[in-house]
Please model this.
Amino acid sequence: MNFAILATLLTSGAAFAPAPTGRTSTAVADSLNGWVPDESAFAWGLPGSLAPVGEFDPLNFAENTPLGTMKQWREAETQHGRVAMLAAIGMLVVEEPIEYHPLFEAYEKDIGPAIRHLDEVDSTTPFALIGLTLLIGSLEWNRALKGFAKPEGEFSFQQLQENYYPGDIGFDPLGLKPEDPEEYAIMQTKELQNGRLAMLGVAGMIAQELVNGEEIFVNLGIAQDRFDPSTVPIQF
Model:
């Protein structure tokens, strides 16, 4: 979870990248996972809409948006949603009452809200954050090589390759990706919807812990508050 939160901060700039000004043609040599960009469709025909909300865009961001820009937004949304889903699970797992810490041993000691765990790691093992930064950087580098266009010719910042489907970085160790285009669109819609919910959920959990410094289940009255700030090397 700690990795997930830091990754969110490091990658959040992708959502605010400058957009290309020109509109890309809808003619694409090969369909991408069954998707052929359709200028007349909502969000160029990308999956992600689900009843009863449907084509939810109250601020009309998707209206008259160039294809390249739409792909950038979907790439950012998909990646941030994945990070948020990991973060949502991670925050609940490392706090009371589960308290499973894959990075360090707590020795039956409550080390407090998850939003401060990286501070504790930094205060005791600062070099661990260097390794964490290198790990996140290597993952982002791989994503850039897979999906982003080379900075040559007519190029705009963070421009995606024409034959790259937003979010499909080729990582599928369990072989879960459907080969049927319709099934793939359904699966991506589910991923996007869960990612959107996770982004809202994680934002709420982080805000709650910042307000009163209590862990999630403690704040809900489900778990006992055993955290003693004097037992950790940082001040809360």
Observations:
- The chain has six helices and no strands.
- Helices lie at 2-11, 67-93, 117-124, 127-147, 181-212, 216-219.
